Amino acid sequence: MRKTLLDGIQQETKQKIYECLSQAIGEDRQEADAVLELKTHVSGPFLNWDLIYRNLINAFSDSNVLYSTSKRGMWEVLLLLDKNSGLVLSFMRDTRFETVKKSKVNKQPQYIRSLVSLNAELQAPHKQQSLFEVGEPADETQIERILDEMCVGFEDHVNKETVNHTLVVFSNQYGRIGSLKAYVLDKDLDVVCEQDWLESSSPIMSNEVDMVQEKSEPRHALKQKSLDRLHRKELVALKEKELEKQA
Which of 11, 53, 132, 194 could form a disulfide with 78 if both were Cys (CB 3.0 to 4.6 A apart)? Predict the structure, then answer.
């Protein structure tokens, strides 16, 4: 089988990414909902991303994978730099990915256009016919500036001539990862190469989410592991209150 850029990423790294995503949208989200006692879930998708990013930062804080965060308007972007493969990784939901691909170039997020510029020398083996007219050429100065802003958090200097970009796309439903794929895209967002990371990842048995049926709508039931963590937090809070009374 022909080797691709994605073969440079170690299986341990792929497994860690899977575990971070699975833990975030599973037990971590259940625990957050229980602790916050939320009655509505307007901020649900944003909370998921905060949990995902936290897990990824913690998982790779002492490894050969560096991270950088940057604000893009109201959104915040986390990038990972895998020094072994020379790949910069970003993350996106599958539904968002499909929307971006179908958008006109000038409607696509600037940070995505900037990241795929790292793959300028690559071209997909099977090009898709564009439904849109070719827009104005990209502002190279602006692309360079956005890239610098997004990579500024990396401990090491990033030589943009020697790295490429990979987009990690996932789906989730009811606290489970439904799909997890990595794509190397060319400047037109056509696929140069891809890998299915869900197939190669080992499941986390403790993250199998219990479902409770209520009025025909499924909801999450806290696993025992999450309940134990909540109980420990409650004990700590009670102890702190006792110490305050004695002070």
Answer: 53
